[in-house]
Design goal:
Largest sheet: 10 strands, mixed
Order of helices and strands: HEEEEHHEHEHEHHEHEEEEEHHEHH
CATH class of the largest domain: Alpha Beta
Strand order of the largest sheet: 2-3-5-4-6-7-8-11-10-9
Shape: globular
Structural class: alpha/beta
Distance between the termini: 38 Å
Number of domains: 2
Helix content: 25-40%
């Protein structure tokens, strides 16, 4: 969830616990995920999009040609992940093709955070007009300017540190987003330094709903318009960001929306419990999904069906429900069903000419691996006359699936 320095005592024990999570991420990929060693990097990087005070990288995906303004989904990855890896695993660009919306995927840099986490707990990065929050907002503005995005249909979602950063963006820029989805994240204002961040992740101090709501209202400044609708997802067995955080997020946003503490309805979706809070007009403003027995990660239902997408991997968990699809439905992006896309438009679409990049498959025997090979692959794929077979071979060697020689 964040970067840290070594410490002693109770705080040191928290750091050791998180270090174990990072080792889990670097450990062997589940067998069913090993077949997805090569992913299509479908994202385009935009190097100039504003002053970029948070020093983030901007990646995006545009579906095959469509008529009219497109909705936009901003997707924030978790710690140790990349824009391309999380897009492939969660399946957002797959749904973008299916339903016709644009995807923006900001990426953290290790120079900002050694673990590749968004700095949701640093005040300079979690304040309107400042740091990483301002960089992400500048990316949204660039997408609207360059691609004709519908300003009424801009949404945001994220996992873990990306989920906590989603809380930041929804609180600091409520006029920008129609809705947001927080996966294994934390409420806005849960921490203002590293120690508080770990305490919130592992212990989650509880606050009154009004206290949480006041933090959002203060972050939003003079906002007088409507507030974003909120979808909350959390695993019942999450020991990295304990499930109580989901309850505190719900308290925060039901207070902001002026809703009762008790849900308006309870049901089950794909066999999993869901609660929803409705306004007087019958609109669902807040919903929450609990995935019993699921640990820390994004819930997936992989496959080729309409309600399936993505690829299982570390913190991308195939549990039988696609949070990506159901979040897209909550955003209103699936109302008209999958759109027909001609073969000609797909062939002419720029993504059809993208080269395959090595998916972030983890080593099979727990050995450590750094990002340098993937970065070299990315640079290599930007050149002319690339030997794709050689690149794939090196990717397999780095993953430990083929011996050198």
């Amino acid at each position: 969830m964040l970067g840290f320095r070594k410490s002693n005592g109770a705080f040191g024990n928290m750091l050791k616990r998180f270090d174990g999570v990072l080792k889990q991420f670097r450990s062997a990929t589940p067998a069913r995920a090993r077949t997805s060693l090569i992913a299509i990097d479908r994202l385009f990087e935009t190097e100039e999009f504003g002053s970029n005070p948070g020093q983030l990288r901007m990646f995006s995906y545009m579906p095959p040609p469509t008529i009219g303004q497109l909705p936009l989904v901003v997707v924030l990855h978790g710690c140790g992940q990349t824009a391309a890896g999380y897009d492939h695993g969660a399946g957002w660009s797959t749904l973008a093709d299916r339903y016709g919306f644009a995807v923006l995927v900001p990426e953290q840099q290790r120079s900002n955070n050694p673990n590749g986490c968004f700095n949701w707990f640093q005040p300079e990065d979690a304040t309107r007009g400042s740091g990483e929050a301002a960089s992400i907002h500048q990316m949204v503005q660039a997408m609207a300017r360059d691609h004709g995005i519908d300003p009424r249909r801009v949404f945001i979602t994220g996992l873990s540190a990306g989920g906590a950063m989603t809380s930041v963006m929804l609180a600091c820029y409520p006029e920008t987003f129609a809705a947001g989805a927080i996966i294994a994240g934390l409420p806005y204002g849960a921490a203002s330094n590293v120690q508080q961040a770990f305490q919130s992740m592992f212990q989650c101090p509880q606050r009154l709903a009004k206290d949480w709501g006041d933090r959002v209202r203060a972050a939003a400044g003079r906002h007088k318009g409507s507030w974003p609708r909120i979808s909350v997802w959390h695993g019942g067995a999450d020991k990295t960001v304990i499930p109580t955080n989901a309850l505190e997020i719900v308290k925060q946003w039901t207070d902001v929306h002026g809703l009762a503490a008790v849900p308006s309805k309870e049901d089950r979706v794909a066999g999993f419990p869901r609660q929803a809070w409705l306004n007087d007009a019958g609109e669902e403003l807040v919903e929450t999904y609990t995935i019993p027995n699921m640990s820390h990660g994004t819930p997936l239902a992989t496959g080729d069906g309409e309600v399936e997408c993505g690829a299982a991997g570390p913190f991308l968990l195939d549990v039988g429900i696609s949070s990506t699809f159901h979040i897209a439905r909550f955003f209103g992006l699936t109302l008209h069903g999958p759109r027909p896309v001609s073969a000609a438009s797909r062939l002419n679409h720029p993504a059809a000419n993208h080269h395959p990049l090595p998916f972030q498959a983890e080593p099979l025997h727990g050995e450590a691996r750094d990002d340098a090979p993937a970065q070299r692959f990315r640079k290599e794929l930007g050149r002319d006359r690339i030997d794709i077979s050689a690149v794939i071979l090196r990717a397999l060697e780095q993953a430990g699936l083929k011996s050198r020689g």
